[in-house]
Amino acid sequence: MEKIWLKHYSEGVPAEIDLASIGSIADYLEEAVAKYHDRAAFISGATGGVITYGELDVQSRDMAAYFQSELKLPKGTRVALMMPNLLQYPVCLFGLLRAGYVVVNVNPMYTPRELEHQLQDSGAEAMIVVEVFAHTLAKIISRTAVRHVVVTGLADMLPWPKRMIANFLIHQVKKAVPPYSLPGSVSFLDARARGAAASFTKVDIAPHDLAFLQYTGGTTGVSKGAMLSNFNILANAKQGKVWGDPFINQDEELTSITAIPLYHIFALGSCLGFIGMGGTNVLVADPRNIAGFVKVLAKYPFVSLPAVNTLFNGLLNDPNFARVDFSKLRFAIGGGSAIQRPVAERWQKVTGAPLVEGYGLTECSPTVTANPFDMKSFNGSIGLPMPSTEISIRDDDGRELPLGEAGELCVKGPQVMQGYWQRPQETAAVMTEDGYLRTGDVAMMDEKGFLRIVDRKKDMILVSGFNVYPNEIEEVVMMHPDVTEVAAVGRAHESTGEAVLLYVVRKSPGLTAEAIIAHCRENLTRYKVPHQIVFLDELPKSNVGKILRRELRDKAA
User: Fold this and answer.
1) 8 Å CB contact between 57 and 33
2) Domain 461-556: which topology?
3) Is 260 in a helix, a strand, or coil?
4) pTM above 0.85, yes or no
5) Considering the domain 53-205 in this protein, what is its CATH number?
6) pLDDT tens figures, 388-415
7) pLDDT digits 0-9 by tens, 232-243
């Protein structure tokens, strides 16, 4: 497809990025440390704790040395990281990447069933987990390859005696979570101390070496690891950097608010992009606490706020949000799920800055398109393809469609994954012969190159920016002995964008919606739990017996 979109790039944004200069994430960090040694790299929004680039260098090196010298794990070992937005996250993340390991990001809210699948599928041999989630790991660790566990406390990055006081408040006064020590595990502080006393040998990491197994349902709903290399991640970071370069002064200290969990690819990509600019990432561990979130925004004048529609809407509904200083705000970036026009228009009215929507997916590290940052108002599109990115709109037979016609959005570029971990058939199913990734989303492009998503080929449900796959929900519900058939679909929801609606055919008339929801809560992360249950005598099916989800979606609408 002709790159008609290049004519509508912001002035100063190049058509291509320099791919030859991309190395490893470890080198990328070391370059940032050399330039910005004394700047704040990360700040905890909850505690105010700060890690400078120099401290991040030392502490991540200590963690790398522990895994390399003490545990003797070779380059390429998969290591799971199960942690919310705490200061320990970047220390562990960069430590693992500097030692040449493959990071397996894990949602801390996973149930034992979900965690077991991800650990078994990835073959992770080691894991770093926050103590409040260690009990989940304890239930399934014997059925995984995990042999080494590092457990960290919520307050581990605070200096003594603040750490002691915080732990007392967390565990004894608030009784928020009981302290848990996994048998045979090593504490984060002990691991870091032992690493500081050990030697670290710099690892030769090639650009195309794996950096992450980032789990996603892809187009089928079976959770699988997208293989993202150092090259994929850094290419996407560079694409984002050149997109924003004309609008910032890099001699200033740049602050980004990281409220989306770092285990989510959207936040991870944004965070890494700011590292390359010497920016400061302010970590928000619990953005659902909107009042607390607004206090963080008021304390740290910010240039960038990447978030999902749910968070933007929640902030706008807080009475104190309008009093925040927005004078430095340049990039309010919406992704993960569609931005609603009323939210975008209200955002611009309150902050004075447009809400810029983009589009991405885990398989693309994640960004594929974005709106220009000099747009004057919300336009309802997902923007223009990023530099060095090719787009093709194709029909069901793989033929490219003329401009203005709707078809499957297909993507080619340096940010596209290497494939799905140990799933060659699934990889082949989403990659075309000429190297494009089939996204499963139906889009159309206008005469200026702006894209709009008009439908989905896949049955994915987007809840607050998180992918929810009907297959997984249905499999869990069918475990209930009183369920005969089930179908999960998405329906519009004013606060989360979409919510899970479950249609159930029951064996026993005594089965209640409450019982099904309780069963789901035992086996599914919170955002996957159905919002509504509808009982039917039978589900609509095709002539060959396939449940017709589209008919049920229409019924829900």
Assistant:
1) yes
2) GMP Synthetase; Chain A, domain 3 (3.30.300)
3) coil
4) yes
5) 3.40.50.980
6) 999 999 998 999 999 999 999 999 999 9
7) 999 999 999 999
